[in-house]
Amino acid sequence: MNPETSLPPVTVNILTGFLGSGKTSLLKRLLALPALKDAAVLINEFGEVGIDHFLVEEVDDDVVLLKSGCICCTIRGDLKGSLLDLHERRAAGRVPPFSRLILETTGLADPGPIVATLVADPVLRHQFRMGNIVTVVDAVNGAENLDRFPESSRQAAVADRLVMSKTDLADEETINALRHRLAGLNPAADILPLDDVRIPDAALFVSDIHDPTARAREVARWLAAEAHHHDHHSHDLNRHGDIRAFVLTSDAPLDWARFGLWLSMLLNRHGTEVLRLKGLLSIQGVDTPVVIQGVQHLIHKPVHLDDWPDGIVGTRIVVIAKGLDPEIVRRSFAAFVDQTN
Ligand SMILES: Nc1nc2c(ncn2[C@@H]2O[C@H](COP(=O)(O)OP(=O)(O)OP(=O)(O)O)[C@@H](O)[C@H]2O)c(=O)[nH]1
Predict the structure, then answer these.
(1) What does pTM read for this prediction?
(2) 25 touches ligand 1 (CB under 6 Å)
(3) If you ran DSSP here, which 8-state letter would residue 256 be given?
(4) What are the CobW C-terminal domain coordinates in residue numbering (predicted)?
(5) What is the pLDDT of residue 25?
């Protein structure tokens, strides 16, 4: 048997955040956790990370083993090449059998194309699968970065978890204002201050949408966060620059084929504007809900939940989009739903 085909796919977590936001500090802290013992880390430069004191053994020119057991490597050439190289080493037993890969991006990266590489590449998609995207936002400079740098907003908008760093250096008012702003920009993400006691166990990376026990809880959380945001804030707070979050709802079950067609058309036309899409679907003829997740024009494989999360019935889709009028999407979705019934 080909050893490569017998290996389960590696979950990839993207760790992103603007320049100097505190990605490496968070990574160092997380790598000390037993839960991340079997993680590999892919970063741009060892120098930037300053992991020297973690380092025990050099496996190869660009791969080291950390004291914690984690594998750490630099991105050599392109991302795809580095991922395939790492996969080959794993399959050949040349590095410990890691099951998770943490990819720390540069501060100016747009995570969208990274996700696209992982999900759309015909070879990589069988060996890797997307886990949570974690974005670090600095409590001191975060608001200004969001104002000035589109990369910063995009990093925040695509996140599954937003970690606020440097809360020890900012006053409460600043922290609350930033939290409020991030909740508007990305209501589907959990926002955690770095000094939150939950962080070491919060499984920032570990509890992801592919984990069956975490799935239902996670979906309920996105939807509750969006509903709360709608109930408590004026519509305009959901709008930052031209990035907005909005929800599409339908109480009547959808026709799966027609919905697929509608979504393909939406993403075909507006794929670059849709930064993130997460939803729970009620499908005709299926009792249990289906979860869909997408980043830009890519939709991950739909996942069936065993039960409806507490208090939620019917289709609820959270869309985070840049430069796209929510009314156009709502109207098109409503027209589609009307035609279904
Ligand atoms: N006081 C305080 N300092 C922090 C915190 N998080 C990070 N820092 C400091 O902020 C600086 C930048 O942190 P890094 O972890 O290197 O940030 P980064 O996002 O990896 O930086 P780049 O890779 O250069 O983009 C360092 O001096 C850290 O010690 C925090 O929560 N509180």
Answers:
(1) 0.75
(2) yes
(3) H
(4) 243-337
(5) 81
